[in-house]
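pinned: reference chain
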Amino acid sequence: MTIRAVACGGPELHAAMGALGIEIADPDKASVAVVDLRDAEFVSAAAGLPRGLPRILVTAEGHRPLIDALGFPLSAIAPSCEPAILGPLIAAVLPAVRRPATRSIAITSVRGGAGRTLLAANLARRLARQRPTLAIDLTGSGDLAWWLGAHPSSWRELEGMSEELNVDHLALLAVQAAPGLRLAGGPPAAPSGPLGLAVLRAGLELAELVVIDAANLAEPRTQIIVERVDRVLVLSYADPVSVASLDAIDLPPDAWLIGSQGGSLALGGREIFRVLPRDEDAVIAAASGPRAASGALGAAYDDLAGLIAIDAS
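pinned: its structure tokens
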């Protein structure tokens, strides 16, 4: 996030702003003003600043009685223009910026077989217990429908409707997979990039949360969708092929890198957000009928779903 500030001071103050990466701006575009009271010229310039604009004052020792008399908070007073002193004071007076709540989650992987669709199905099931959720299969494989025990309409029924697709169209084609959970997208083909984005837009009107089973991260359709969602989960094994695949592509900003099958805690020097355990019994049980996975794997899914629910609040 770019911080913009009014700098009422000379070269020393401007140099400190540059060192801190703070952009000098006009009062109507700034979040804070830094005023060097040690120079009368800049005190006069500061007199016309908006009253509601937070201020940091750089003072000399002789200014302290006046500052104390005015009741100015000590937390906004700096004894010099040193960046190490100004930086924390500026950060403290800036209004808190909250990250928008997560409503759309894309789940992808660096290569096939990492358990991406099983994760998507289980997160969708768990999140649907708390909020109306739409699961979207952008792979066209039908695997997500199989894990959810549903039979959605083919993407071919929507192809060509990217421009006019709305929530009413999607509501007609999204099938009920479980209480609070609907599913859109069926085989035999994946949707085009524009149709995928149109379904995402309509899906955010149809449900409170959207969980997307996307193809491998290198796929152009996946690249398009991960740029539009709030949260991206990337599954990967720790084998050399997977690590090489990670090296060949940029991970989306703030992506959660998920290790699959009890892999190591690092992938080519990258920190893994969570590791999914190897639990064949849980997979076999889940595959025996449309149900959420249990066991150690189910507990790991519970953990991720809980974190996403916090992210969505």
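why pinned: DSSP finds twelve helices and 15 strands in the chain. The chain has two domains: 4-93, 104-311.
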